[in-house]
Amino acid sequence: MAGQVKISGAKNSALVIIAGALLCPQDCRIRNVPSLVDVARMGQLLSSLGVKISQHGDVLDIDASDLSTSQAPYEIVSQLRASFFTIGPLLARQGYAQVPLPGGCTIGARPVDLHVRGLQAMGADVQIEHGMVNAYVAGSSRRLKGAKIYLDYPSVGATETLMMAATLAEGETVIENAAQEPEVVDLANFCNSMGARIRGAGTTAITISGVPRLHSTDYAIIPDRVEAATFLVAGAITNSEISLAPVIPDHLTPAIAKLQEIGVQIVADAPDCLRIVPGEGLRGTDIKTLPYPGFPTDMQAQFMALLSLSEGDSVITETVFENRLRHVAELNRMGADIRVEGNIAVVRGVPLLSGAPVVASDLRASAALVLAGLAAKGKTTIQGLHHLDRGYEKLEVKLLSLGARLQRVTGAIVSPERQLGVNNPTVNSYQ
Ligand code: UD1
């Protein structure tokens, strides 16, 4: 493979920024929105609340001037955890919100206690009954009150929920031990572009001075660092020179550092363009996932695929989610040598992976299996592409443009090299 790839807008920014548009009683234009199933679901959720949304390419126009309800439907929340983020803006703007508990998912239990406790600290009355979170603000103004909130863990979602809620609160809110992820900063910049007063996003203490009302905006989302890292790993695992743009290299610091340890060179050709130059051979290294600026959990599975083909032993420790190593069994089916003890995976590098039918267990696991399949000898068939479509925009189109041999198959066999093993009309497959 070789060539250039355009990196799409960040999924995790898009999801929370679309939810954040609920704060605004005027038009919001959001640019660089990736075309993803999750983003479409967030749009559906807003529509169900009475919001008018129109899309032109990667531009989304949102008019949330009239909200017909503050009640999020379970059918959508159960399919998209991020839809829980709407509780913050709905409560801040309407003084009332009813959002179903999202429940766990394949990577972990994923409670929302930190979101709830923070909203309570801001004066909300929150009751959880029959799987529903009912939150309301008493008093004639129905406005939340600024508060000092310490998060037990720097949760991305809780930081975002509370930051959005605080934009319209009375007085000042300080979120201590806040998440520092770039998507949190993107959300803060978006809110500030609507007249919010948020300082310190990107540090561990975020201060929000509440304002009574926000105004219209035109805002572009940052590039997706996880997609960019996935393409860097694609270059490393297939020994290919690939250029990526646009990217914000600072957001990729942990991924770049690990790739360099593995023996791959990363060159900055321009401030927003990185090129991966393959090295002589791949060496194992250790990785521990942590909140930003630590190594992202969302890049763990893809790096595991790479380390399975890197010489020597690597230890991967997953500390963010309790059940995010389910791709190990599938990589082992392809000939990898990985053992798991609790949240630790010991990867013993093998010289070769061999293609096999595999099943994706979650979004980033599906990307890891595509990467492993690109490097493996013979055919690989990946089932469960609904996971992939949640978070990667046109992954196969982008990989094909680089010269990869793969095909999305919902019907017949097409690839000359790798044959389709499964033909299930309800589950798309890669081969
Ligand atoms: C976000 C990202 C996800 C990423 C994750 C960690 C979005 C849409 N998703 O998820 O891609 O993998 O950050 O970088 O932005 N926790 C609690 N109580 C809470 C909230 C979280 O115990 O109230 C725990 C979670 O179970 C998990 C850890 O905190 O173990 C991290 O979760 P969090 O940072 O909240 O991740 P999300 O916002 O769900």
UniProtKB/TrEMBL annotation:
Entries under InterPro entries matching the protein: Enolpyruvate_Tfrase_dom, Enolpyruvate_Tfrase_sf, MurA_subfamily, RNA3'P_cycl/enolpyr_Trfase_a/b, UDP_GlcNAc_COvinyl_MurA
Coiled coil regions, renumbered to chain: none
Domain Enolpyruvate transferase as annotated: residue spans: 2-399
Domain of life: Bacteria
One MF annotation (Gene Ontology) recorded for this entry: UDP-N-acetylglucosamine 1-carboxyvinyltransferase activity
Role: Cell wall formation. Adds enolpyruvyl to UDP-N-acetylglucosamine.
Protein name: UDP-N-acetylglucosamine 1-carboxyvinyltransferase
Organism: Chroococcidiopsis cubana SAG 39.79
